[in-house]
Amino acid sequence: MPDSLLEVQDLGIRFGGLHAVRDVTASLPAGQITAIIGPNGAGKSTFFNLISGFYQPTSGRIRFAGEDITRLKTHEVVSRGIARTFQTTTIYKELTVLEGVMIGHRVRTRAGLFDALLRTGRERRDQAESHAGAMRALERVGLAAQAHLPAGALTQEGQKRVGIAMALASDPRLLLLDEPAAGMNPEETVNLMALIRELVAGGLTVALVEHKMSLVMGLADGIVVLHHGQKIAQGTPQQVSRDPAVVEAYLGSHAHGGQMGQAEPGQHGGEASHA
């Protein structure tokens, strides 16, 4: 059994009187793919926001690689080795693919505004490091040949890969993917699954929030199930799919016959506010 790279203990956050995440205890094994699933509004994206430092928990602890990171700010979490993508493809479409990914690398560099204005030696070194780091990330996602194209000219799959490359440019140990397959067709989804497997085979640990259950069941080594902000199950895909509490949670949320994790007609698969 792999060691846990990240552990959360009794993790929770309140927004006013609402518990968006409550008393969640779970671990993410190193070198594996863990899926975070649950009905809409279950707290999945909020869980990611807590891990990545976007939100500060109101209770509980987060440990990464043995270090308590509960109170760290987002840039400090990134510097420890955690990077994430978002539900929407957050890329700079007017920039070239390379320029956008270089932004992801700059969080690792040391030059400040003074260096940038005066073009100091440190700024030039950091620029060269960012260029090299961005190209390495683009190689990993198969986009090195498209480095000088405008990011907005790429297909939906290509833009998703740019988003992943931006996260990889910070050289993470843990990659958090928030609905990576949203808006992608079946062929693109299969390609994305292959990319994620390659990244994990290369030493990365991945956690993903995803509504496409075909992707989850075909890709994840383990699954954590959230419902109303609480963990109701954790195990292998086979164990989770047979868990009565999980089946009940999904059937209750999709009374019109929707499949586990699929949005009902009229929904877009996104989280509710503060979900």
UniProtKB/TrEMBL annotation:
UniProt keyword Nucleotide-binding, yes or no: yes
Protein name, entry field: ABC transporter ATP-binding protein
CDD domains to which the protein is assigned, alphabetical: ABC_Mj1267_LivG_branched (cd03219)
Family annotation (SMART domains): AAA
Region of interest (Disordered), residue spans: 256-275
UniProt GO MF annotations: ATP binding
Keywords linked to the UniProt accession: ATP-binding, Nucleotide-binding, Transport
Pfam families, sorted: ABC_tran, BCA_ABC_TP_C
Organism (species): Deinococcus navajonensis
Matches recorded under InterPro entries: AAA+_ATPase, ABC_AA/LPS_Transport, ABC_transporter-like_ATP-bd, BCA_ABC_TP_C, P-loop_NTPase
Domain ABC transporter: 6-253
